Amino acid sequence: MGAVQQKLPSADRIRIAARELFATNGFHQTSMAELAAAADMSVGLIYRSFKSKADIIEAIVRADFDEKLLEIGALRQQLADGELTVLETFRQLFLQVMDEGDEALSFDILAEGFRNERVGQTIGEMCERFRGYLREFARAANARLDGEDLEGATELLLGCLFGLGHRSISRPNLDSAHIAEQSARMIVAAFRDM
C-alpha cells in the first residue's frame, strides 16, 4: 500500500483495497484475510469499520455514485453555461460510462444487489439521485417532455447508460468514441421527435 493510502482513514483504505480485490477476484472469492493484507490492517480493524462485506459493497456503491454525480453535475453546469450543446452533453455522458473499465465489479455489485435487499436498496437510492440529472438532460433535448414521457425518457437514458457501461463483454464493433457519438445523436433525435 502506498504512503498516501496509509494516511487515509481506515474505512477509505478498506473500501479502496476492496474495490480492487473485488474487481480482480470477485466479491465472494475475496476473503477478509486477503482484504486485510491489501488494506495493511488486521481483520479485526476491518470489522470495526464494516460489519460485513455487504457493508463494504454499499460503501463502494455510495462512493462510486458520489463520484459519478460530481462528473454529471459538471456536465450539467457546462450545459447550463452554454459550454456544451445537448448533443455534446450526451456524448460526454456516454463516454464517461464506457471508459470506467470496472465491468466485472459492476456485475458483481448488481448481483449482490439482487441477493442482498439492503445493497439493492442502496443501488436504487443512488439511481434515483442519478435520475434527477437525466431528467434535466432529457428536458434540455426537448423542453416539452413531461409526465410519463419524461419518465420514459429518463428510464431509456438509464438503460442506455447501464448497457453502454457493460458493452465490452459483447465485443462491440465500434470504439467508445463512435458509439458515444452515434448514441448521442440517436437519443437527441428521439427526444426531439417526441
Structural key phrases:
194 residues, mainly alpha, disordered N terminus
Radius of gyration based on Cα positions? 19 Å
How much helix is in the residues?
over 70%
Number of DSSP-assigned strands: 0
Terminal CA distance = 52 Å
What string, H for helix and E for strand, traces the elements in order?
A: HHHHHHHHHH
Strand content: under 5%
How many distinct helices? 10
Shape: elongated
User: How many strands, what sense, and barrel or not for the largest sheet?
Assistant: none
Instruction: Quickly give the structural class.
Output: mainly alpha
For this structure, the quaternary state is: single chain
Low-confidence stretches: 1-5
User: What does the average pLDDT come to?
Assistant: 91
Folded structure, characterized:
Keywords: DNA-binding, Transcription, Transcription regulation. InterPro entries: Homeodomain-like_sf, HTH-type_TetR-like_transc_reg, HTH_TetR. This is TetR/AcrR family transcriptional regulator. Pfam families: TetR_N. It comes from Novosphingobium clariflavum. By secondary structure, this protein is an all-alpha fold. The protein is 77% helix and 0% strand. It has 10 helices and no strands. Helix 2 packs across helix 3 and helix 6 packs across helix 10. The chain is elongated and about 55 Å long. The N terminus is likely disordered.
